[in-house]
Specification:
By secondary structure, the protein is mainly beta. The protein is built from 1 helix and 11 strands, in the order H-E-E-E-E-E-E-E-E-E-E-E. The protein binds copper (II) ion.
Length: 157
């Protein structure tokens, strides 16, 4: 009886950054960068591991904080960093971990309804072709956290 109560209390405490499993997809390390006032877009980062035996694809997502949820890829074009939406879905091969990080793949919250504030986590849903929908929480870190070589400013958003 007493033990059951303790378990119930432990389960009620939110644990940030715990790996989330949906089907063969394991999601961890979700975080987003705080945005300045008036920003239209915000970036989110995470790790996705395919623990299964067949490939899956991240095909989209949604979050209440923004009009659109997009998966973007950054690449160097000469000395200029460019980013573009991954429109066909991002494949995660069996046994592979895809890390979203500043300067590489990232989630883009487009059309922010309010700035992303440090310490105020945001809820989002990832959509996989096979694993389906996965609810995740992005911890919001300071604006300067692990800053990428190029900002999102002036990249046509
Ligand atoms: Cu982007």
């Amino acid at each position: 009886m007493f033990r059951a109560l303790l378990v119930a209390i432990a389960l009620a405490v939110p644990l940030p950054a715990v790996a989330q499993q949906a089907g063969d997809m394991q999601i961890s390390g979700t975080w987003a960068r705080a945005t300045p006032k008036g920003a239209q877009v915000g970036g989110g980062y995470l790790k996705i591991t395919n623990t299964g035996k067949t490939p899956d694809r991240l095909i989209g997502g949604a979050s209440a904080v923004a009009d659109k949820f997009e998966v973007h890829e950054m690449s160097m074009n000469g000395s200029v960093m460019k980013m573009r939406p991954v429109t066909t879905g991002l494949e995660i091969k069996p046994g592979e971990t895809v890390e979203f990080k500043p300067g590489g793949y990232h989630v883009m919250f487009v059309g922010l309804k309010e700035p992303l504030a440090e310490g105020k986590p945001i809820s989002a849903t990832l959509i996989f072709e096979k694993a389906g929908k996965v609810d995740v929480t992005f911890d919001v870190r300071g604006i300067g956290a692990q800053s990428a070589p190029a900002s999102h400013g002036g990249m046509g958003h």
